[in-house]
Amino acid sequence: MGSAPLSEAIKSILDWSMTEGHTTTTPAKAGELFGSLVFNDKAQQERLPKPAYRALRATITRGETLDLATADAVATALKDWAVEHGATHYTHWFQPMTGITAEKHDSFLAPTADGGAIAEFRGKELIKGEPDASSFPSGGMRSTFEARGYTAWDPTSPPWLNVNGNSVTLVIPTAFVSWTGEALDKKTPLLRSMEAVSKQAIRVLKLFGSTAERVFATCGPEQEYFLIDRNFYFARPDLINAGRTLFGAKPPKGQELEDQYFGAIPERVLAFMAEAEFELFKVGVPVKTRHNEVAPSQYEIAPVFENANVAVDHQMMTMETLKKVASKYGLACLLHEKPFAGVNGSGKHNNWSLSDEFGNNLLGPGDTPHDNMQFLVFCAAVLRAVDRWQGLLRASIASAGNDHRLGANEAPPAILSVFLGDQLTDIFEQLEKGNAKSTKQGGTMDLGVGVLPKLPRDAGDRNRTSPFAFTGNKFEFRAVGSNQSIAVPNMVLNVAMADALDSVANELEGALAKGEDLSKAVAKLLTKMIKEHKRIVFNGNGYSAEWEKEAKKRGLLNLKNTVDALPQFVTPQAVKLLDRFKILNERETHARYEIFLENYNKTVNIEGQLMVLMANRYILPAAFEYQKHLGQSVAAVKAGGGASVQGKKLLAQYTKLADKFKVQSDILCNLLDHHNGGTAEKHAKYMRDKVVPAMAALREIGDAIEVLTPHGVWPLPTYREMLFIK
Ligand code: ADP
Ligand code: MG
Questions:
Q1: pLDDT band at residue 459 using 50, 70 and 90 as cut-offs
Q2: In 3D, which of 389, 391, 427 has the Cα closest to residue 530?
Q3: How many CA within 13 A on the CB side of residue 122?
Q4: 369-388 and 422-432 are packed helices; what angle lies between their axes, rounded to 10 degrees?
Q5: What backbone phi and psi angles, to 5 degrees, belong to 551?
Q6: Does residue 157 line the site of ligand 1, with CB under 6 A?
Q7: CB 303 near ligand 1, within 6 Å
Q8: Are 668 and 611 in contact (CB under 8 A)?
Q9: Which of 25, 139, 353, 397, CA to CA, is 20 to 30 A from 453?
């Protein structure tokens, strides 16, 4: 019993060889291959007629609508390019509310009158597709009679080729909307939010004399993940169906020695990373960084930042590629926020900033007082955005998976706050007093005529405990879960920032209209903003109990779990905000709330069911077997005239645990059977308050049984095996 998957795993690990036809590459080759499977600017320029190329660029850079003539020209060039590269099919790739991506493949081939077939692809097929929308969650937005939805090409994200063994498919990134124009996906609102933040940022930039016409939110997401041998993975029903272990006792050696972080990467893992990067390079994902993470068998991959909507697509592609390539190396990639209890979980650090069309980073301190004045205004606007919309930001990263991580003393707390670093905090403190003169760095600071101290690019102290940290030239939203799409958090960041910049622009425009001097108006506004929003700034230890108390005093929200956090989407203010900036109308917002709740309910339900299944089919049979064995042993000793005091004691202890386990498993089973329906919200509360604690109780007993059960009898790979045998 049980030893089969283990010996298979160990055998595959020992037999694994670097030389078996795995891809190797050199920097030169990688450079050459970057984007080779993407219909990128270079390919567009080479293949499109000049007018079509210019029209497409105008769409991409200025958001102008694509006319059908251009679409036809692009479609023809795109099809020829794809077919030359061996493509037979195309797909409209989209990001439904389920959290993963979806695609439906269509052939390029169309029958001809003479019974043959020709490759055909027109503008209307490029810009519009019609998947059956009825099986994707719509949060009640759509009744079945209007089940149709369509996908629309997002020209700002270039199409690419998905090469998969013997098939090549042209992938067209799209937005997914209903026939009434309502957003059914995560991308549409993100694109709308890019527009909104651009518009408001431009208003502010104009006041500083900028000629920029567009601003882009930029994003560089750092992905954490675990890799374990696939044999272990397939021997764990919980990993297969829930993405995390639902049972598993803590190993004797965990991450206490901290000997993994930035340590040498094992050979097989390194080979996996190289190939995953290679694959991502070809489809234009600019991956750059790789390293070990804190926990055993935990790693990280990070790209160079890009425009947020492209970064979101590339992030989804990164997750898909990691999983796909892992299996080629006999590994399983775990993207769940908390695959192993008691071991650090995984997050996704969402680095975010704003940049104008000339590539100027608006959250990077400049070299001149004028630049710095503008920088401080944008920075203060971030404080306003996070302070005003802390609830919405918290909701944007809420999920059943992330609940295991946030606030668990290894990940950011569930309280949103901003880490600014000593120097910037000092400058803001001076500004708050209104007549800022000297700073800690000794420079004088007078916004109009003096010189701001030159701010270093790197803010020094990284403060790993902050959920939202300034890191020298960008903010890092660190509370995002490893398994989540970054579309929603970026959408919320953008709209929160649009709102903050809108108010900044209003005030400054008003002051200038009254004839006030810009630097005076800015100084006045900054003083006011800092007074209003300084409560959100916290540079201390976010894991400490004192911070929780202090945050409460400051009136900051502390939404500890998904069910507490999600209603922040539908507060009257949030609904109004999303509507005002044309991101989501009230119906669309409520639909999302429903879908997120349903996601939570489904996830907890699946996990609960799995625990019952594992109890009945794995753990109890093993426990009863060992119990029988113990009983026989005690009886044998007794028959031989002995006492077996300790054996009897162990048998009693073990029997008690097994009984308790069975009782608790039945309790959980009953709870899962007997929830009384009602609204998704009511159900979610039931899941949180009744089911989740019952699962925790069952796990505790199960883990206690595990540590008493012999190696050959325990039917599941253990934490020690999964995390340390590689
Ligand atoms: P680390 O945080 O690990 O020290 P970096 O600061 O170099 O590493 O960058 C982390 C991530 O932040 C990378 O993906 C990087 O591309 C991204 N990043 C850097 N500048 C920006 C920016 N202006 N906007 C968005 N993301 C950025
Ligand atoms: Mg970082």
A1: very low
A2: 427
A3: 5
A4: 90
A5: -60, -35
A6: no
A7: yes
A8: yes
A9: 353
Identify the three-state secondary structure at position 221: strand
Which ligand is in closest contact with the Cα of 218?
1
CA 59 to chain centre: 28
**655-662, long-range: CB within 8 Å, 24+ apart, which pairs?**
655/627, 657/623, 657/701, 657/704, 657/705, 657/708, 658/620, 658/623, 658/624, 658/627, 658/705, 660/701, 661/615, 661/619, 661/620, 661/623, 661/698, 661/701, 661/702, 661/705, 662/615, 662/620
Q: Cα separation of 413 and 347, whole Å?
A: 13
Whole-number Å distance, alpha carbon 574 to ligand 1 midpoint, is 29
Burial of 509 (C-beta count, 10 Å sphere; 0-12/13-18/19+): middle
> What's the 345 CA to ligand 2 centre distance in angstroms?
16
Supply the mean pLDDT for the chain.
88
287 — phi, psi (to 5°)?
Answer: -70, 145
Give the Å distance between the CA of 613 and the centre of ligand 1.
Answer: 43
Q: What is the pLDDT of residues 300-325, one digit of tens each?
A: 999 999 999 999 999 999 999 999 99
For ligand 1, say whether the CB of 220 is within 6 Å of any of its atoms: yes
What pLDDT was estimated at residue 18?
59
Residue ranges with strand state E in 456-499 = 468-470, 475-477
Q: Is 478 close to ligand 1, i.e. is its CB under 6 Å away?
A: no
From the list 90, 89, 82, 54, the residue with the least C-alpha distance to 69 is 54
Q: Residue 366 is encoded by which pair of tokens? A: 């400049």
Note the pLDDT of residue 389: 98
- 125-156 tens-digit pLDDT: 888 777 766 667 777 665 544 556 788 888 88
Dump the DSSP string for 625-684: HHHHHHHHHHHHHHHTT---HHHHHHHHHHHHHHHHHHHHHHHHHHHHH------HHHHH
Q: Is the CB of 218 under 6 A from ligand 1?
A: yes
Q: What is the 222 CA–ligand 2 centroid distance (Å)?
A: 7
- Provide the pairing of β-strand 287-292 with 475-477: unpaired
Tell me what the mean pLDDT of segment 56-84 comes to.
88
Residue with tokens 């706050």: 417
- Note whether 117 and 133 are within 8 A (CB): no
The mean pLDDT of 383-389, rounded to a whole number, is 98
- Of 522, 386, 400, nearest to 467 by C-alpha is 386
Query: Mean of the pLDDT values across residues 360-374?
Result: 84
CB 204 within 8 A of CB 377: yes
Q: What is the model's pLDDT at position 444? A: 41
User: Could you tell me if 105 and 125 are in contact, meaning their C-beta atoms sit under 8 angstroms apart?
Assistant: no
Could you give the CA distance from residue 81 to residue 380 in angstroms, rounded to a whole number? 47
CA distance 288 to 259: 23
Q: Which atom of ligand 1 is nearest to the CA of 355?
A: 23
Tokens of 311: 């970064």
Predicted confidence at residue 451, as pLDDT, reads 41
Is 2 touching ligand 1 by the criterion CB < 6 Å? no
**pLDDT, position 257:** 54
Query: At what angle are helices 518-533 and 422-432 packed, to 10 degrees?
Result: 110
Give the position, in ligand 1's atom list, of the atom nearest the Cα of 221: 14
Q: Ligand 1 within 6 A of 475 CB?
A: no
Q: How far is CA 622 from CA 152, 252, 714, in A?
A: 53, 22, 6
Number of alpha helices (DSSP H) and beta strands (DSSP E) in the chain: 25, 17
Q: Tally the C-alpha atoms within 13 A of residue 588's C-alpha that lie toward its C-beta.
A: 21
Residue showing tokens 């802390």: 390
One-letter amino acid at 319 equals M
CA-to-CA distance for 519 and 150, rounded, in angstroms?
49
Question: What are the tokens at 651?
Answer: 């048998």
| Cβ neighbours for 7, distance < 8 A, ≥ 6 positions apart | none
